[in-house]
Design a protein that fits this description.
There is one protein chain. This protein is α+β, with helices and mostly antiparallel strands and about 750 residues long. The protein folds into three domains: about 25-215, no CATH class; about 285-315 and about 570-715, no CATH class; about 355-550, no CATH class. About 40% of the residues lie in helices and about 10% in strands. It has 20 helices and 15 strands. The protein has helices spanning about 5-20, 220-250, 285-300, 305-320, 325-340, 355-365, 380-385, 400-415, 430-435, 440-445, 450-460, 470-485, 500-525, 580-590, 595-600, 615-635, 650-670, 680-700, 705-725, 735-760; strands spanning about 30-40, 50-55, 60-70, 80, 85-90, 100-105, 105, 115-120, 125, 135, 145-150, 165-175, 175-180, 195-205, 210-215. A five-stranded mixed sheet has the order 3-2-1-12-11. It has a three-stranded antiparallel sheet with strand order 4-5-7, with no helix packed on it. A hairpin with an 8-residue loop joins β1 (about 30-40) and β2 (about 50-55). It is globular and about 80 Å long.
């Protein structure tokens, strides 16, 4: 079939749908609800009910799960998304009575939806220790007919309209409830059909019903026609994409990238648009997993380590409180849901940037001297690829590494500099996902410099997203490519098939990956992937030999001078020798006098010092204090120092805590740098310092600095609360909420340690 006939068919179908009268609701298959659970996990106020069940919709072949958390007696109309966002769970009147159970879901798009009423007379219960009872619904013994109500509107709607909705039966299978001695009552709001009004039925605690009819504004014929035309264009693009995809599959290509013809559609299966490779901590569960991973490397150790057990033991001994990270995670999850906060994971598709956008990124990169801090691509080599129209040719005519390098580069530049007007309409996450689809094919090709560039860019992009495990794996690939390409050794300019520029760029990539490898090694206290004995560690001639203000402030950059990440110079990847402290001190003395960390990390530092401070300068200062704490904390990393063992002179433990204090003061002074995009870059510095100061507070509650240190932690908690303020619709960024709750819990326990001393 020709393209023109496909378009005509799509347009004819859409037009006929628009012109046809609204059909009556067809006979629908029963909606099946399974695994219904209602539980009151704790009787400690505020009491919270956990409601969950599974829904199978045979009409749409959909299986989804719905759940809600509700503080007992909380008024108000609340909506919860099921795992399938097309369905919603509504609890407009809260939870009151578990013995009579009104239950249902509605479709989020406003199409066929309603409510179900289920009699609660057929529960069979067995007593248990926790919860007090577990009950199963006897569906076969129930004589009550459960009804699912669908609301459809007449062609014309007026204020006196009366709906006569058809009925949709519900089957209930394997339903359970768990409770103590408190009642549960749920009610589901019924939304209207796709056109017209909506019927809502509410039942209050006295079982009196209130029926409300809400009118939905109808679109004009012109608006509906415009919407239909837009939908037609989407369908045309999809069909063309599928057609091109079929052609490519016939050629035997396992990994596809888009053919850039006149159609803007991607030549990939439609299902790929639903894939999501990137960690997204805007989702609460993802953020919680990331948070738990980070704090395990902030002084707590892993969940089963002796280090974490010692931490719990110290808290119990010094404060009388019981603390457990897993219990904290459960409690903070309940609290988040109880407050009706929302966290929505971004739906990320797969998009391929055009050659014009990549060209803009390359010119921006070169014009602003970004090679100085991100030596991730060879500008001339990438320009050659763009001149050859690599992205506009069929995929089989170019290497996957070439395409991945260009696409990943566009993703990184448009992400870091997303506020530039030229990149306002870019979608960097979708670009990076497109580059990730090329990874299998790229790794099966013979490696070259573009392969190393692409993998390095992917690693740098993913690293600050909160789940660095994936970035570590990509770094491992990059390190192997470094060895395979000989980047760990200095290449001579006259070596066969190597130009001086290529050799210099290869070494620049080596040093960049070397610094990132050191960063991971320092943060996790693990050996680096790159063995120094296997490398030439002579710095390139273009490396800035002396630290200057360009390292700390917003200054013009030059691609002819490399400013490597500071971690490569920090001597604390294995801080077990007193010589490391001297090296770190010498490094600090090499900074300009007015750029040293101690100048900034005070409450009295003038504000003008921070005006032109760059993110790079902030990272150098925080890295310094982090390494200082690591060096002085190395001797006590596996045991807890007792106050009696400290001498009158400053001990390593006290110097470690002083470094933590300085870190928190510094973070407070540069708080304008911390936002959703940078939080995970600084999370480990922040959480490590918080835990160190907390450790000091409960270990030495009689310290003269106790009040000041406690105030510092309270300020950090307040700052996180400010960052995590929910929007008007309840949306919030979960990492801020988690960090705030964690710091506030530590502050509370620290107060207990002081009160125990004062009470004796």
């Amino acid at each position: 079939m020709k393209t023109g006939s496909i378009s005509a068919l799509v347009l004819a179908t859409a037009t006929s749908i628009l012109a046809a009268p609204s059909p009556k609701v067809s006979v629908l298959e029963p909606l099946q609800l399974t695994n219904l659970n209602a539980a009151i996990p704790s009787t400690t106020p505020p009491q919270t009910c956990l409601l969950s069940f599974a829904v199978k919709d045979p009409n749409t072949n959909t299986d989804t799960k719905c759940s809600a958390y509700w503080s007992i007696g909380m008024p108000g109309n609340k909506t919860y998304n099921c795992s399938d966002k097309a369905y919603q769970l509504h609890l407009p009147n809260g939870i009151y009575d578990i013995e009579k159970f009104d239950l249902g879901v509605s479709r989020a798009d406003g199409s066929e939806s309603g409510r179900a009423t289920v009699s609660g007379d057929s529960w069979e219960c067995e007593k248990q220790e926790y919860p007090m009872a577990r009950c199963k619904w006897d569906a076969t013994g129930s004589t009550t007919e459960e009804i699912w109500t669908i609301c459809s509107a007449p062609e014309k709607l007026d204020d006196s309209a009366i709906f006569q909705p058809p009925r949709w039966p519900i089957r209930l299978v394997d339903i359970y409830k768990e409770y103590y001695d408190i009642a549960l009552w749920t009610i589901l709001q019924a939304h209207g059909a796709e056109r017209g009004g909506a019927l809502a039925i509410y039942v209050d605690t006295e079982r009196s019903a209130v029926i409300e009819i809400n009118r939905r504004p109808r679109k004009s014929t012109r608006q509906e026609l415009a919407d239909t035309k837009a939908r037609v264009r989407e369908l045309e693009a999809t069909l063309l994409g599928l057609k091109e995809s079929t052609k490519q599959n016939q050629k035997g290509l396992a990994i596809l990238s888009p053919s850039r013809s006149s159609s803007p559609a991607s030549a990939r299966p439609v299902s790929e648009a639903l894939l999501s490779y990137l960690p997204d901590t805007r989702d609460f569960d993802t953020a919680l997993a990331a948070f738990q991973w980070h704090i395990s490397y902030c002084g707590l150790g892993s969940s089963l380590s002796t280090q974490r057990a010692a931490f719990y033991s110290l808290i119990q001994e010094q404060t009388g409180c019981t603390f457990n990270v897993d219990s904290f995670a459960h409690e903070v999850t309940q609290s988040f849901n109880t407050q009706q906060l929302k966290s929505t994971k971004k739906v990320i598709g797969i998009k391929w940037p055009g050659s014009a956008l990549v060209q803009q990124c390359l010119e921006y990169f070169d014009r602003n001297g970004l090679y100085s801090i991100f030596p991730i691509i060879d500008v001339e080599a990438v320009q050659i690829l763009l001149n050859a129209n690599v992205l506009d040719k069929p995929p089989h005519m170019s290497r996957a590494a070439n395409r991945a390098c260009l696409v990943a580069f566009a993703a990184m530049i448009t992400h870091i500099h997303r506020h530039e007007r030229a990149f306002a309409n870019a979608d960097p996450d979708a670009y990076l996902q497109a580059a990730l689809t090329l990874l299998p094919e790229m790794l099966l090709e013979p490696p070259d410099l573009r392969t190393l560039e692409a993998v390095t860019i992917l690693m740098l992009y993913i690293c600050p997203l909160g789940r660095p495990q994936a970035a570590e794996l990509l770094l491992g690939i990059a390190v192997q490519l470094i060895y395979n390409l000989g980047a760990n050794r200095i290449q001579t300019p006259n070596e066969i098939h190597r130009t001086d520029q290529r050799s210099q760029h290869l070494r620049a990539l080596f040093w960049h990956c070397y610094a990132v490898d050191k960063e991971f090694s320092i943060r996790k206290s693990q050996p680096p992937l790159i063995n120094d004995a296997d490398c030439d560690l002579d710095l390139p001639t273009t490396y800035a030999q002396e630290t200057s203000e360009r390292h700390f402030y917003m200054k013009p950059l030059s691609s002819k001078e490399l400013l490597f990440p500071p971690t490569s110079a920090f001597p604390c990847s294995s801080p077990r020798s007193s010589g490391y402290y001297q090296e770190l001190s010498d490094l600090n003395l090499g900074y300009p006098a007015d750029c040293r960390p101690e100048v900034f990390a005070t409450e009295s530092a003038p504000d003008y010092l921070f005006h032109d401070l760059s993110m790079r300068g902030v990272n150098i200062h925080l890295e310094y204090y982090y390494c200082l704490g690591k060096i002085h904390g190395a001797s006590s990393s596996s045991k807890i120092p007792s106050p009696q063992s400290w001498s009158p002179l400053p001990s390593s433990a006290e110097l470690c805590f002083e470094a933590a204090r300085c870190s928190l003061i510094y973070i407070w002074r540069v708080r304008q740098f911390i936002n959703q995009h940078t939080f995970w870059l600084h999370a480990q510095f922040l959480l490590t310092a918080v835990l160190s100061v907390f450790w000091y507070l409960i270990t030495v509650p009689t310290s003269s600095t106790f009040t000041r240190d406690l105030k510092t932690l309270e300020d950090i908690a307040g700052f996180l609360a400010h960052l995590g303020r929910p929007a008007d619709d309840g949306q919030t960024y979960p990492p801020f909420y988690l960090a705030q709750a964690f710091v506030e819990r530590l502050v509370s326990m620290a107060r207990h340690s002081r009160s125990r001393i004062e009470g004796t």
